[in-house]
Design brief:
2 copies of one chain form a homodimer. By secondary structure, chain A is an alpha/beta fold. The first copy, chain A, has 2 domains: about 100 residues, 60s Ribosomal Protein L30, Chain: A; about 150 residues, Alpha/beta knot (3-Layer(aba) Sandwich). Chain A is about 35% helix and about 20% strand. The first copy, chain A, is built from 10 helices and 12 strands. In chain A, the strands form 2 sheets. The first copy, chain A, has a 7-stranded parallel beta sheet with strand order 8-7-6-11-9-12-10, sandwiched between helices. A 5-stranded mixed beta sheet of chain A has the order 1-4-3-5-2, with helices on both faces. In chain A, helix 1 packs across helix 2, helix 6 runs parallel beside helix 7 and helix 6 runs parallel beside helix 10. Chain A is elongated.
Chain lengths: ~260, ~260
């Protein structure tokens, strides 16, 4: 039988909560925390599972949870509430090791999504999910983006961050220069001095990187200058702008890779 | 000078709160409530403004608020908090008349978005925003969709619901039959027995209706059967599905109208 945890002050619980709350601690530990049966099962396909926590009720519903080859803890409902930060939780939680990914290991001639200072976790998550769905080979983040292994991003991405390399680069303009040196075309999403998407070819056999800025600020001039060209999604005058994850996903669909 | 409201129990405040909270009351009053300077200014371009409420601070920042030809109230900060339901508000609120729209007045040969039981206000709002952005002529809702004039939908749509007819039909399958009788093609978004989007022509000069179901359930069999054909967005096996407003917006982009 798995060990029981009855106290919210248990060290194993505090460790999980700290992983959920602190991006710096996740980086230090090369680990992250996820909540929810479906998300945990999905992540377990691509990331090493280290610890699993479940309530008695959750285990009765999903006895397969016991099969994971990792530390296991049966937690009381009030402990699950602390892990979840909410009463309405599914009683399934896990700690995973972060997949290691390096910019220099990214496939040359691949398709990439790059984000500059996109802070909203829902947008970062939805964009990672769309990139995985549309045959992209990886995601490149500037400093200041929401952590791809934070709880809200994991939820919005449905765990796609485990299925694809996601790397953070100290300087996004330098990363674009490197991709271009490898033969890729870097396309900045920008409203001005840009070509409308419907006039831009979607096929880039030597690789392409779609570069997107934050909802409020867009891309910095430095990153735009480091790209080959800029593209925009033409819209009517009836609205000022599109939702950020919608706009990015329409671009990703246009520049999609092979979908098998 | 505008009349001052110092009590949270003032009838004009209670009326606005009831509009914010109750879809049935909005329908009865043919009115709705909106919060935020940008959203209110945007909505005022397309919907009749009936009442405007602002704090002293908000008026000092945006003196143009006084120019609206409608009832005006200067509200104390604690009253603004009641209107907003939160402390962090911009101190600008308004009541608008709902634009009236009828299914039978929709332009024949137009482009439409139809939603069946899409309950999430963020998704309904983002989809209305995308439809307006991509040159659609209106939105058709089944019963059970989030109210397009509810506060969360207004925020997610950035007021686009005022710029386009949005109609609710008692029976979506009947509405599709009527659109087809007018010569339009109705396309159901469905994962099975459907054609991949990249193999489907986007131009429908006689009109097209893109029909989307809820994130969890998809479209009902009856609505799918009432359409001409079904389409799906092909995705890799790395994710199970796309975010609902992303998926709908990619379809809307593909079937976009003229964008001027």
């Amino acid at each position: 039988m798995p060990e029981r945890i009855t106290s919210r002050e248990n060290g194993k619980i505090k460790y999980a909560c700290k992983l959920a709350q602190s991006a710096a601690f996740r980086l230090e530990e090369k680990a992250f925390f996820a909540e929810g049966l479906k998300l945990c099962l999905e992540l377990a396909k691509s990331c090493p599972i280290k610890v699993i926590y479940y309530t008695e009720k959750a285990l009765a519903k999903s006895p397969e949870l016991k099969r994971f080859d990792c530390e296991q803890y049966l937690v009381q409902d009030h402990v699950a509430e602390k892990l979840a930060g909410t009463q309405s939780n599914q009683g399934v939680f896990a700690v995973f090791g972060q997949p290691s990914a390096n910019f220099l290991d990214l496939p040359h001639n691949g398709r990439f999504l790059a984000l500059e200072r996109v802070q909203d976790p829902g947008n970062v998550g939805a964009l990672i999910r769309s990139a995985a769905a549309f045959g992209f080979d990886g995601v490149i983040l500037s400093p200041g983006c929401a952590d791809p292994f934070g709880p809200k991003v994991l939820r919005a991405s449905m765990g796609a961050a485990g299925r694809m390399p996601v790397v953070t680069c100290p300087n996004l303009a330098d990363a674009m220069a490197q991709l271009r040196a490898w033969g890729s075309t870097c396309l900045a999403a920008a409203l001005y001095n840009s070509r409308p998407l419907n006039e831009v070819d979607g096929a880039y056999p030597n690789g392409v990187c779609v570069v997107i800025g934050s909802e409020g600020q867009g891309l910095s001039d430095g990153v735009i200058a480091a790209c080959d060209a800029a593209v925009r999604i033409p819209i009517t005058g009836k609205v000022e702008s599109l939702n950020a994850s919608v706009a990015g996903s329409v671009l990703l669909w246009h520049f999609r890779g092979e979908i098998q």
